[in-house]
Model the fold of this input.
Amino acid sequence: MTAAVVEMRPERRLSEKPTSDHLVIDGVCKTYRSQRGSLEALRDISLRVRAGAFVSIVGPSGCGKTTLLRCVAGLDHPTAGEISLKGSAVSGPPDNMGMVFQRDVLLDWRTVLDNVLLLTEFRGLPRRDWIDRARRLLAVFGLASFEDRYPWELSGGMRQRVSICRAILDEPELLLMDEPFAALDAFTRDELNLELQTLSQRTQSTTLFITHNIGEAIFLADQVVVMDRRPGRIATVLDVDIPKPRALSVREGRAFAEIGRQVRQTFEDLGILRASP
Amino acid sequence: MRHGSARLFGNVGLPLVTAIACVLLWEGLSRLMGTPEYLLPRPSRIVTAIVDDSGLLLFNAVYTLQATLLGFGLAVLLGVILAVLIVQFKFLDQTLYTLLVSLNSIPKVAIAPLFIIWLGTGLNPKIAIAAMIAVFAIVIDMVHGLRSVDPDMIDLARSARASAAKIIWKIRFPHALPALFAGMKVAISLALIGAIVGEFVASNRGLGYFILVSQGQFDTVRMFAALTILSTVGLALFYAVVGAEHLLLPWQVARRRASANA
Done:
């Protein structure tokens, strides 16, 4: 473990000059200890994300993707290594961060509009300052006529749209999404991929997007981080040099297919995917 | 609408028709077999007795109702406060909650005479006994409700730096309300039992006292009259809680209906 930290040093020197790196993950390890022994969830994760970049993290179940996201969010603490945002170390949930989970976690007793405004109440911000923006966002997602409805009156896709509105209401600099579309059907997923792309181009949030869907990871991202199974490690990082905004049809293009091939190849080399029956 | 009236009949009409049929059967059989009145009076005799003693029954029912409602209110207040503390403080969870759950298995009726020694023979011991019997249902259901919040929801709140008080007040507490109402539906009946137990132990008023006195006089008809009123009070209290749930938790009721139709 010590050796890994020492090896990280040269890279740390690189980060000293103030580049536009928004998020720097530096040699992060996470081991959970329980009575039944210890579980190494993350091993020596290093990653730098420039401001405004959209980074997809793709990997099999149990590769520590969620643990990594929770560490970045300041909800969990790395056993070793450091995470910093705009040069200052993360020790708790930072200001100006939005989160979206696989389950939409909307509050049943609040209307759609009140759900979107929930986090401003936690932050102690006056509701009247945000209500117009909340309405505009709902309109962008085609939910304008649903603001007085309750979550249980909406479909799964609509619910997840509401939870995205809630996360991006105050235009967070950092947006963390943990398999947000995993529970949706393929059509709704495509629609939401497009909507998210449009939105993230407009807000310029630095985004970490966790998924186990390779196509979705590539479609949305500037960079795809491929993770190996437990203990979670970064196997490779691939750049996606397809100009944005992208139409769904880029998925049939050569560039897209090539990146997809590389991701699958990585998983095959790791023994996570099998090449043939 | 047709669907709605069919459901209304299923929920209200069917049990009512069954009850009326049972009473008619009872009336008919006891007339046919000539059952002596001191063993099992006929329903028609019970109704006459209720009408004859209506003033006396009302006076005693009000007293019992008073003890029940005050005991129930106390149980809800105490139960909710205890549940919030138990969920907030791990120490109380390990000590108080474990203790409460084991205390729940003690036959609480057996402790009732103690309350007479502590609080005298007035209304107070009845309120205390009603609250003691009812409080466990509230605490146990409320703790479960407060705990069953999706951990992602708590993470979301923490990610927005919500204070512990706001997490309790804006997330855990409203989330636990359906569980609280489930507990209250059980607790209201338990509070009525508690009030009657208190009157059985030592009292000079109330439906429990009325039943004891009638028994002493071998007046079975009056006992049944009091029992009928007691059952009616119990039913009314239960449906009052159900009604309050409909009023206060429209989302819960509508969601239940939506999932029942799905």
About this structure: Chain A has two domains: 19-96+175-272, 105-171.
